[in-house]
Design a protein that fits this description.
332 residues; alpha+beta; Chemotaxis protein chec; Surface presentation of antigens (SPOA); six-stranded antiparallel β-sheet; four-stranded antiparallel β-sheet; 11 helices; bacterial flagellum; flagellum; FliN-like_C; SpoA-like_sf; cilium
């Protein structure tokens, strides 16, 4: 983005040009010089900004679904939201996470390769504490998990995979994620080469009184077959699906047989609670409307027609006079 000069800077520049302190020809020659930008090949940027935005949108939905799932399972306050989405080398991701943490290795057919969901020890043990009947306090003992505690965590995190599947369905990509293994030492987890670019989606999580991060690591080599689908242009074109004539008629047929409540409002009246308590059979309640005023006919609670009361074949009836085209003020 070009730098915007303030008015004082513009005045100073014009003054320097007019006094000869600056040469206009020199400025033009500087503009023609090629501008060099440093590029680090170890941190190759393989995802465009458009694709990053799509991934952010997908995982914002995933964070909402995960919040509902963990809230139901742990029965405590849970808040999960997307904190950041970055692309970096796999080696840098491994160095950035704790030496003892919870790493879920996930397969997601038809994608080839593995995804990683890293859960910070503070959050992981708070979840485990809630599952075992505790208050959800955090205690870093990830290195010494028992077999029972490991199985409990596996069951909890496996239940968090359907929300991931649902979130990815929004980009017309069906994946079937399932948990392969649960690891606690990131140094033993060399799923891709150290220089391979990965997308790291960092979710900020609050479980009860404990807080921490949940990081999703998505290698570029795994997402490569579906990267075109992450483009907003592709996404919007796919969403523009026209309804066929058969689908339209089927929908119209179903709607035509739908039942909706129809209410004819005779009038309104306001009485005190004392008067209500003292009502008995035979009492008359005076309405605010006059006898010759038209009635409002409501459909599902919304005013749609104006009518008048009457009888048809010895039964009470309402005759529709006209359709309401503008908002009708009703004193409800």
């Amino acid at each position: 983005m070009a730098e915007v000069l303030s008015q004082s800077e513009i005045d100073a520049l014009l003054s320097a040009l007019s006094t000869g302190e600056m040469n206009a020809d020199e400025l033009k020659s500087e503009e023609k010089k090629s501008k060099v930008r440093v590029y680090d090949f170890k941190r190759a940027l393989r995802f465009s900004k458009d694709q990053i935005r799509s991934l952010t949108r997908i995982h914002e939905n995933y964070a909402r679904l995960l919040t509902s799932y963990f809230s139901a399972q742990l029965r405590t306050y849970v808040q999960i939201s997307v904190a950041s989405v970055d692309q970096l080398p796999y080696e840098e991701f491994i160095r950035s996470i704790p030496s003892a943490t919870v790493l879920n290795v996930i397969e997601a057919p038809p994608l080839e390769g593995h995804l990683i969901v890293e859960v910070n020890p503070n959050i992981a043990y708070a979840m485990l504490d809630r599952l075992l009947g505790g208050a959800g306090e955090s205690m870093n003992k990830i290195e010494h998990l028992t077999e029972i505690e490991t199985d409990l965590m596996k069951g909890l995190f496996e239940g968090g995979l359907p929300p991931l599947k649902e979130a990815w369905s929004s980009v017309d990509q069906a994946i079937d994620p399932h948990l392969m293994e649960l690891e606690t030492n990131p140094q033993f987890l060399q799923l891709v080469s150290p220089n391979e670019t990965v997308i790291v989606i960092s979710l900020s999580a609050v479980i009860g009184k404990s807080s921490g991060m949940i990081n999703l690591c998505l290698p570029h080599v795994v997402l490569e077959p579906i990267i075109p689908k992450l483009s907003m242009h592709y996404w919007m074109n796919e969403k523009k699906s026209e309804t066929t004539a058969e689908e339209f008629h089927a929908l119209k047929k179903n709607v035509a047989h739908s039942a909706v409540p129809l209410t004819a409002v005779l009038g309104h009246s306001k009485i005190t609670v004392r008067e209500l308590m003292n009502l008995s059979v035979g009492d008359v309640i005076k309405l605010d409307e006059h006898l010759d005023e038209p009635m409002i006919i409501q459909v599902s609670g919304f005013p749609k027609f104006i009518g008048q009361p009457g009888k048809r074949k010895h039964q009470l009836a309402v005759q529709i006079i006209k359709k309401i085209t503008e908002e009708v003020e009703t004193d409800e």
